[in-house]
Every structure is written in C-alpha cells, then in structure tokens.
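Re: the 495-residue chain
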Amino acid sequence: MNRTTISLIAGTAALAAVTGFASLSTPDAADAGTAKAAAQLPVERTSLLCPTPSTSDLAETTYTSFTPVTEGTGSDGKAELAAATPESATGANGKAKTAKPVLTPEEPGKPVTGGTSGGDSPALVGTAEGKFAPGWTVQETTEVAAGTGRGLLGFNCGVPDTEFWFPGASTAADRTDYVHLTNPDDSAAVVDIELYGKDGSLKSDVGEGITVPPHGSEPILLSTLTDGPQADLTVHVSVRSGRVGAAVQALDAKTGGDWLGASTEPAGSLVLPGIPKDATSVRLIAFTPSESDADLKVRLASPNGLITPAGNETLHIKAGMTAAVDLGDLTRGEAGSLVLTPTDTSVPFVAALEVVRGNGAKQETAFIPATGPVSARATAVANTAKGTTLSLTAPGSAAQVKVTASAGSEGGTAATKTYTIKGGTTQDVELPVPAGLKGTYALTVERVSGGAVYGSRTLAAPANGIPAFTVQTLPDDRGTVSVPDAEQDLSVLQK
C-alpha cells in the first residue's frame, strides 16, 4: 500500500474538519458497494467579516453573535470579533500584533451583543473555533437618524471568498454606493472590480489591481470607477490573489439605504425570498455573465401558490448586460417570494431585488439578493419581540421546517415550532418567541423533510414616520462538512 496516499487522504479529511472548505471524493463515492457515504462532521474553525458600518456621526451600530448548539462538538472553543486595521497585523517592532476583541461570545445557544457609535467604527474580522464554529452567525445592524442613507441598515457578516456578484448597485445622482473590501489574512489581497450596465461593460482601468492590505479594509466609491451616472449596475468583484469579504453599501438621499449582499453564484434558476407584504415598489435587477442571452419565466410564490405577474411574465437578459424591471407593488399585501426559471435553455445568471416601503418623503429601501436553499440549517440574529418577520418559501415540493427561537441575549427560555410549507407557496410564519424574553434573540431554521426551502428575515424599526427595515436572506450556515471514510477511500485507491 502506498503510504503517501494514506497520508494524503488522512490529511485532507483532517483539513476538511478544521476549515469547513475542503472535501475529498472518488469517482465511485456514490457506489455503496465500494465506498461508504461521507460523514457530516461539525466544522472546527470558521471566519466572518463585517464591513465598516457607516461614516455618519449619527450612526448607532449593534453587533450580535450567535452559535446554535450543535451535536458532536467538543467542550472547548472560542470566538471573537476584532478590528480589521493594517496596524493589527504588525506592531512598531515588526512583530505580529493582535487587536483587542470588540465582541467575545460566551456560550453556544445564547446571543451576545456589543455596540459602537459614530462614523469611525472599523470593519471587523472574526474567527470561531471548536464548539463556537458550526453555524456561527454575526449580524451588523446600524441605525442612522438623518442624512443620506438614513434608516436601518443590516448585514449578515460574510465569509471570505474570491468572487462576488452584486446586481442592484448604482451611481445615479441620488445614490452613493461603496464596495467594501475586507482582508482577513496576513498578506495583501489584489482585487479587480468590474461594472456592467444596460449596455454592457463599463470600461475603466481604475478598478483593476486594487490592493487591500493585510487585516485591512478598503471602501471603494463606485462613482470613481465610471465616467458618468448610471442606475441598475451589476458589480463583479474578483480576487487575483488572497481572499476578501465584499459587500455593497447602497445609500440613497431620498429613500434611505441598506447593505446589498452578494447574489448566490450564477445559476439557471434562482429564488429571491421574503418580499415584505407592504412593499410599495419592487425592482428586479439581473445579469448573466454567459455569452448567451437568458430568457426567464417570472413567478411570485404567494401564500396560495405560484402566480405569474400580469405584464411581467418573462424577463430577457442580454449577454453581458444588466436588465432591470419595475414590478410595482407586486405582493399586494401578502407574503411573497420571486421565483425565476428558464423559459427554455438554461443560462446562468445572478439577480437581486430593490424593495421600497412607504411613500413620498417617508420611504425606506432594502435589498433581497438571490440566495441558496437551507440545505440543513440557517440562522438569523438580532431579532426583537416586535418587528421581526420570518418568511419561508418552498418553490417546488412541500417541506417541513423546524424553527427555534433561542434564549434572549439578556434572559428568556428557548422555544420551538414546526411548520409545513406547501409547495409553490411563501409563508410568513408565526414566530416562537422565547418565554420571558429580554434583549434580542436568534431564529434557527432547520429543514426536516420534503423539498427545498428558502428563507429571509425582515427586521423593522420604524422611526419618525419612516418604515425603516432591513432584510437578510438565510443561506445554509455551513455548520457541517463532508468528510469521507478514510478506510473505504483507501480500498478504492489501492486497486
């Protein structure tokens, strides 16, 4: 037997358990006669990145951290969020220097909160290990009382990666949009930013080769990358070397603003879940990086089934160009999610919704990017006793879903409910609020059986007549990783 092969397989399995990003499979892995199914083990280490929350002196930001209780973890572990600044990488003597933690969770199953004020709060880099790693979720929530982008801004701090798509950005006169890039590593990252409008690529050399320093963060004003204002842009962030966290902060002088998270990776069919019932305006922005045009069927998953919006039955996306369409008050007072599928040939695309609540000078904006399903589990944090809406959709077959409300950050007892989401529908479910709740709480969604489930959480905090709100989608929490059985893999490889 080849000992090098043994070491490689064992090392890869160990790496998968530690990072949550590695996996190993063989051509015969699906054959029960030659290899056992891979085991699902809790990840042992994960990273999250939170962008600089605001430049406004009126900003009040709260960070909320939560890890669901996960079977199979040990008793040890830690998690912390610390400032992402170049100075945190090395001290004056050139040696490594660690930033003081901003937030340190205490135990899985209970949220922990911390806050900052003003416009000089830094981006944060977070790391969780051991029992804190599986499903670790951090929410950055900012309230801005006045000025451009006033209202409620929320972002589910993301994992570092090498490519991101953001349909829905803008350099129009009323908008001030930034791409925030955060580097969690000890070496510099080099990033390219490309913009695509209704006529295709916006040619510019300014967005090429942007250096993000180690443990640093760079906000890039989108208008500096173009020659003139243009609405409905798709932003493509690609990393030449290293990895970054990326997010778009979209600030509007009239309708507030919010964070625009990345769309899930390009696919032939996408779901955009959880449009608020009282949305007064819904705008769909989509882009295909393919060399072929994409023709999509547009449907709304309502509480009673799939509906085709009159006058917006289909959407045509030209190759390499951003398409946008106003869908008006699409939901008409009912829960809804947008389901986009190919009319014929499947062509990969990305998409997002720009959603407005309110009217006139009392409007507020949020975004819903296309998201992946809850394969096993997903979590939304920073929920309040009033103002939280959990929206779940099963665009295909019916699904059974378990929702757990955690203990409160300052007290309370966890509660659980199970729901059946009918196929082709969206439901704003009645939440299981923790008994004796004090502070905020987390909602953990687990798919029990049935078809694919997609979800989002809307958090509302109205103030001064403005229906301030923010929406976070619920992609799978990456709490487990597939690790194959080493003996079975060896039996295949030693033939």
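DSSP finds two helices and 38 strands in the chain.
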